Amino acid sequence: MPKHLWVLACLWVAYGAGVASLATAAGLWYYSSNASSPVAVELVAIAAVALLGVVGGVALLGGQRWARALLVAVAVPNLAVFPVGTALGAYTFWAFLRVKA
For residue 19, is pLDDT > 80? Predict the structure, then answer.
């Protein structure tokens, strides 16, 4: 596996795990304080997308070809999450354009 893909996979696993855990904790806190809060539902959706990044990173480490498509799909909405999501999304596109399958 090329170095950039290995680094990219590790970054997605770390970023996804961190975002998923923070969003889950915040969602549970919001839900416990106000069960009808739409913020809790939004945080659960953010956690789900972050977990897709973890799955994509692990699959990329395992050499699965479908991991590229999954990470591109997860990278697109993360471009709006400035600054870390933007940097990771841009690095995802750069690494996939540079390293051929």
Answer: yes
